[in-house]
Design brief:
The complex is a heterodimer. By secondary structure, chain A is of the alpha/beta class. Chain A has helices at residues 16-25, 88-105, 127-135, 151-164; strands at 2-9, 38-46, 51-59, 78-84, 110-115, 140-142. In chain B, strands 1-2-3 form a three-stranded antiparallel β-sheet, with helices on one face. Classes of the chains: A alpha/beta, B alpha+beta.
Chain lengths: 165, 109
Amino acid sequence: MIKKKICMVGVFAVGKTSLVQRFVKSIFSEKYLTTVGVKIDKKTLDLGKHCVDLMLWDLQGEDDFQSLQVSYLRGSSGYFLVTDGTREWTFDKALTLKEKVEEAVGKLPFMLLINKVDLQESWEVGNSKIETLVRSGWSVIRTSAKTGQGVEEAFRALAQKILEV
Amino acid sequence: MISSGGNLVVYSLDTIGIGDSTEAHLHFVEDHMFDSDQTFFFEHICILPNRYVNILISAIHDSLCVIFLDVTSEVRRIESMQQAGNELSLCKEQLGRLELELEKIRKDQ
């Protein structure tokens, strides 16, 4: 069995834990619960030609008191940059976090997830910003841990991307 | 430790689930263990529901030493403070958005 480690990176309260919970257990809770340190989950994904064991490292989000602990990234095969579409600054911050990740572990396959797409009426991230990133080669997926939109697709796409490296 | 007569309770090692399969604890650090010439320290890792550990992996001669330290109570303390801090930050963000909206309405009037 192929085993791959994927990290969830992003600032606090963007929905990293909820995305993992949705993907692994198909559950969602409205209640916000902060993550301390890192939570590790596992899910086996059948990609047709291969079955892959994904080790999902759900990292504590950056906040006013704690910054990204890069030691957790060691051994990663890829990562998700998670942002909250209703809070534009989390999108901008994701670009900084990507630089931090690359400084620590080099260039790895990654995807940008713009979460909370179910809250379109409160959306702050403009399409032009997203399109600019897509044009420069970024893979961007709009997700909702609440409805499940884009979640399975994102994990499958990143796993596929990792296997192609 | 058990077979050598080690007193697990005295060293608080009984809290890491001796009866559990080693694989259950170590499957996620496999990649690191191959790099046996280095020492790794991971803080506040949640590997099982409601159980947090600090993990030290270190090479000793030709083998590896893996130490789990149960830090669940420490994490619980941090968690409550961090939860409050982050909720406050979210409230401030929300307040900022409302103020902007209010200002916009005032200007329109």
